[in-house]
Specification:
It is a single chain. This protein is 50% helix and 19% strand. The protein has 90 residues and is of the alpha+beta class. It has one domain. Strand 1 and strand 2 (28-33) form a beta hairpin. The longest helix has 15 residues, at 51-65. The radius of gyration is 12 Å and the shape is globular. The N and C termini lie far apart (32 Å). 28% of the residues are buried.
Length: 90
Amino acid sequence: MEQTITAAKEDRLPFDSSICVRLKDNTKRQVKSVAGATEVLIDWPHARRGPVYQETMGILRAAVAGSVSVEEARDAFVAFAEHAGVLVDA
């Protein structure tokens, strides 16, 4: 079961700087918060949800729960995007 995040949660968990990723339709998205990163992962193709995906989703959920910092969540999402080959310059 995927976790949804309310807009209020998103406002409280912004990244210091946004992360630009390329989506499956070749568009770019600026990810600005833990909620935005979670949305990208929720939309991620099921066939590509390996261990790095699972670990990153767990870290994002932990950030929402307050057990890891937003900075740690951002770092995990950047590492995921690099691993998946979707991290792009803004």
